[in-house]
């Protein structure tokens, strides 16, 4: 009976997760500005309700009793993940969760207003409160999980991943990029000197771009009966597997940023829509962490969406929706454009990892208390100068205020982006080894075999394994920087 009690609890918690997810997606896309305070109160109350139900003392006995029952392999896996989930939830008192949820939401709402104004001074008190709560959370979790505070935060986003494994691959990648960024820029300059880049027309209505995005979503496998596309300040994928909400933001003078945003979020959505439906009410049925989630989004955006074979198929679709005729030689310089820039979400494949490594290194210091919130702009600027030769000291909106993550209290999340890019390259290498004709399929707009591989290796496994174990089972090896480095060399290097 104990497993049945856990199963019933899972269904109740799933309903609350559903409500919180849809309210959160609505808050970021459709809610009137004046609704912020009451929405924060409502979501804080729901988060507290969820936490109380999910951390009830009797659940520990249910889990222990279920572990002693004769269960199927799937049920045993469900109980293991219920225990991990319960342990992580019971690290935090209910009153703390309510207080933190409210502080995060109010800080995020303030960020939306103050980022455009470059108002760091106005933003600082709210961010300082969120950082203080993040340090408190890290300490509470570290004590229970027997991890360092920052590892305890990473565990919430990528179970099984530790700074001890992130550090070496990030160091190898950073050392490579120090020399490779100048090489990629030189290769680009040489190519442009031979063939000038064809300019974009600069006339792309939001309506046409939206229709193009929807067409791309459907073609790559997105189920439009169980998802939608909207606009937000920061592109995201939210909602629930049966009602996935993805967003992008549009620029009418060019179409690639919105399109790549759509492809990126579609990658997230495909993962959510293809999780095992029969496990949806168990922690086992959730996606396995944010690095794996980012690997799915970056797989679609980078491995597919910036692949020349993809553009052989995509160009006629572009012409149909935007009315412009492009050759492959015309479009690829835009798709593969490399530039040292300030904004992470607009960065190219080559410079993007440096944006993430910068944030990862600062986060370690912030959570450890070595970097105070008031000193973040100077520390950010120093690393930006070192890694990309740019300064953000007078423009915090393009510096430490550019991302929503810290305002929302998501410390330990940033490493997932570059870990995800590395995992995506490793998955593509494994996939093409099994299916050598993957590029031919792409050029024909046929995504079925590619999606079948991902469904079998990643999506159907949900949270059965830790992040490192899932990657190794899918690709046959532990995370290696070499696949991503090789990918960058082939696409952007001189060889």
List keywords for this structure.
20 helices; 3% strand; mainly alpha; 495 residues
Judged by helices, strands and strand pairing, the structural class is: mainly alpha
Biggest sheet: strand arrangement: 1-3-2
Measured as a percent range, the helix fraction is: 55-70%
SS strand fraction: under 5%
Would you mind describing this structure in some detail?
The chain is mainly α and 495 residues long. The protein has 20 helices and 3 strands. The chain has a 3-stranded mixed beta sheet with strand order 1-3-2, sandwiched between helices. β2 (237-240) and β3 form a beta hairpin.
Topology summary:
Blueprint (H helix, E strand, L loop, with lengths): L1 H28 L6 H19 L3 H10 L5 H17 L4 H21 L5 H26 L3 H9 L5 H32 L11 H14 L7 E5 L5 E4 L2 E6 L7 H18 L15 H16 L3 H15 L5 H8 L16 H17 L7 H13 L26 H20 L3 H6 L4 H10 L9 H9 L5 H12 L3
Parallel strand pairs: 1-3
Antiparallel strand pairs: 2-3
């Amino acid at each position: 009976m104990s497993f049945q009690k856990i199963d019933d609890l899972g269904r109740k918690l799933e309903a609350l997760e559903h409500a919180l997810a849809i309210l959160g997606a609505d808050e970021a896309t459709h809610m009137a500005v004046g609704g912020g305070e009451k929405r924060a109160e409502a979501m804080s109350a729901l988060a507290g309700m969820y936490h109380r139900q999910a951390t009830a003392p009797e659940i520990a006995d249910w889990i222990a009793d279920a572990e002693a029952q004769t269960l199927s392999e799937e049920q045993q896996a469900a109980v293991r993940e219920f225990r991990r989930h319960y342990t992580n939830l019971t690290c935090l008192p209910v009153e703390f969760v309510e207080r933190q949820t409210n502080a995060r939401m109010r800080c995020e709402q303030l960020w939306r207003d103050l980022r455009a104004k470059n108002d760091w001074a106005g933003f600082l008190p709210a961010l300082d409160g969120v950082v203080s709560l993040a340090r408190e959370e890290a300490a509470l979790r570290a004590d229970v999980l027997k991890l360092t505070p920052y590892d305890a935060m990473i565990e919430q986003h990528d179970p099984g991943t530790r700074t001890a494994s992130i550090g070496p691959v990030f160091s190898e990648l950073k050392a490579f990029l120090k020399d490779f960024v100048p090489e990629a820029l030189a290769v680009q300059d040489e190519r442009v000197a031979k063939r000038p880049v064809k300019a974009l027309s600069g006339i792309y209505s939001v309506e046409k771009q939206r229709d193009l995005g929807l067409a791309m979503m459907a073609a790559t496998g997105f189920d439009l009966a169980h998802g939608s596309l909207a606009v937000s300040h920061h592109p995201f994928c939210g909602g629930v597997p049966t009602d996935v909400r993805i967003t992008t933001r549009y620029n009418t003078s060019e179409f690639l940023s919105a399109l790549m945003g759509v492809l990126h979020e579609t990658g997230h959505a495909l993962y959510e829509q293809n999780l095992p439906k029969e496990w949806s009410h168990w922690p086992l049925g959730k996606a396995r962490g944010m690095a794996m989630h980012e690997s799915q989004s970056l797989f679609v955006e980078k491995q597919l969406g910036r692949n020349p074979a993809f553009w052989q198929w995509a160009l006629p679709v572009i012409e149909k929706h935007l009315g412009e005729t492009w050759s492959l030689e015309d479009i690829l310089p835009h798709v593969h454009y490399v530039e040292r820039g300030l904004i992470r979400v607009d960065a190219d494949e080559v410079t993007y990892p440096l944006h993430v490594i910068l944030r990862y290194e600062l986060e370690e210091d912030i959570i450890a208390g070595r970097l105070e919130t008031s000193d973040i702009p100077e520390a950010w600027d120093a690393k930006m100068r070192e890694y990309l030769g740019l300064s953000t000291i007078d423009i915090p909106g393009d510096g430490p205020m550019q991302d929503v993550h810290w305002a929302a209290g998501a410390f330990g999340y940033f490493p997932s982006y570059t870990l995800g890019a590395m995992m995506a390259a490793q998955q593509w290498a494994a996939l093409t080894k099994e299916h050598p004709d993957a590029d031919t399929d792409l050029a024909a707009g046929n995504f079925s075999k590619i999606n079948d591989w991902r469904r079998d290796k990643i999506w159907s496994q949900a949270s059965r394994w830790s992040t490192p174990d899932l990657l190794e089972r899918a690709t046959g090896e532990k995370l290696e920087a070499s696949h991503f480095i090789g990918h960058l060399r082939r696409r952007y290097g001189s060889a």
